[in-house]
Predict the structure.
Amino acid sequence: MTPGDKTVVAVILIVAVSSAGLILLWNNHFMASGPVEVVIEVDGQEMRRGSLSVSELGEQYRIRGVVGYSLLEVGDNKIRMVESPCPDKICIGTGWISHPGESIICIPNRIIVRLVSGVDYHYDGLSQ
Amino acid sequence: MGHKKGKTQRLLILSQLVASGSVLHVMESYLPALAAMPGAKLGLANIVTMVTLALFPRSDAWKVVGLRVFLGSLLAGTLLSPTFLLSAAGAIGSVSAMMMTLSASKGSVSVIGTSIIGAVAHNTAQLLMAIFLARNVGLLFYLPYLLVFGLPTGYFIGTVSGFILRRFFPVHSRLESTGYGGDRQDLICRCRICNWSPQLPKED
Amino acid sequence: MQLRWIGLTTLFLLVASLQLSGCRGTPPEVRRSEFLLDTVVTITAYGSEAEEAVVAALAEVRRVGGLLDANDPDSEIAAINSKAGFEPVPVGDELFELLERCQYYSALSAGAFDITVRPLVELWAIGTERESVPTAEKIKQALELVGYGKMVLDRQTQSVFLPEVGMGIDLGGVGKGYAADQAREVLREYGIDSALIDAGGNIWTLGLRPDGKMWRIGIRHPRPEGKWKAVAVLPSRDLTIVTSGDYERYFIRDGMRYHHIFDPQTGYPAQELLSATIIGESSTEADILSTAVFVLGADRGMAVVKQLPNLTSLIVTPELHVHAAGPYKNRLELVGKEGTNR
């Protein structure tokens, strides 16, 4: 890589970090009121998706990861990892997440819990 | 006579590039999507764009990329679907960014840096198109991830492109060390492989 | 060198095109709609036989619609109703079996599902220009003519007898479900492995969508606001989803909503829930049970569903709370009470 290339990489990293910061700020200030969705992925596969606003308080999700079962707890418009078979327990240390863009990631158990702002609930047919 | 032969060969190589680009485009659509980062792609078709940019004038690069997006989408069955619009936005973004890099850097940025810029611009343009299509500004949340993700993929694509250029088009071998910004026109003018000279006044 | 480049790329293209051509091509889509069973029936199917299959399935729905139409004077149902209080009417195998199934579920739901509600349906006449709130006296009179236990199904003579003048059978709570099941059978006979049947909101999903993903079926929000009409979405494969709600046919008098699903105990439209959805593998059963649960309410309704295997239920209470139970509970994607997403 030439010095020019290194400059390119550095500039991109700076833009990425600053945009991440800006987006987080923006999320906290302007997006907090929208509906929040929980997306739970195991090993890259979406396993479950739900809206935080209608999840019942104290409800728990038992998720089977690559290593074993992880337990998620839903709170008042927030969610956290309470049990995990991983050695480092970083996911539990993340604590509650409540805003779109936040996530709990458990690398050993390959679980990603992401919060996204409510997306298009497209459907093929409507039961009525 | 030599001139005519060069023209045919130029056409042949350009056609090969369009075809390879289309196939890479389709193959890319078969790769499992990275669930953690929607929109994050390896950008295989960018190899073809890099090679085209290194060997031919800009107008040809646009033609190759335009045809590649069209044919690739046709083959993948996504023509005129949102996926097609995303591909087109990504391609336009990456080609313009790489062209700007080539003319602005004057050789200080190598094929790898150029490719990284292409990958990042591709991802960004695609994300903007996705935000427009989904009317969901919340997708902007992916921007930092996609920017960072462009670094390794761009590096990989740049390395592969550099390899192809060195391996098959040895007269351009200096591209890797000096970049092809300033010297590019000269290199192509003296191209022994294609035996073809670009008409300089036509470009810019 | 350039010869090698050209040779290699040509080889690459050849190999790649062989790979790509093998697994391409989305199967042709056939979608047909028809006004049947007092509603719109839409069948979407994929595959080379889709055209013939969909035409045949719609013909089957048309046949079932004729069989179950109490307002068609030539139908067996109309014959049973007109001979009420006089004599038993012999009927074909198909109708007899269906009536037996209905009686089974009526007993199971303690009469919450009852096909002998026709006197109530006629009295309220909801959905017609005669619709009105009847007097309590009239409702009491009609209620005396309602009762699945009074209907006599004689296996020996394969006949149906309604013992009192004025009694009548109305298969509105089961017809769409039965028609959907029949249509699904036809599609399967044609070897269709990707299809969506929508019999007026009774949904049957066959196999997977042509893109290999599960069908996504919305469950109607009883009081939709904003952009999204669904209260939940169910990714579904080889499942039927049936919803009964108070929003389908109704009129509003003095701030009260009077709809078309009656509680056979009170004679009034059932008040317990806004909607009840059953997810299962028989649309007939799901249609019947969605009506039963809708009438019975949350606790008693869910208790009935629990007695039967492999059924998932989702209910929306008058407070717009959503409750779900059963094997697919966790697959349901709840959309949120605001209708979600500005």
About this structure: Chain B touches chain A at residues 32, 34-36, 105, 108-110, 112-113, 116-117, 120, 134, 136, 138, 140-141, 143-144, 147-148, 150-151, 177, 179 (CB under 8 Å).
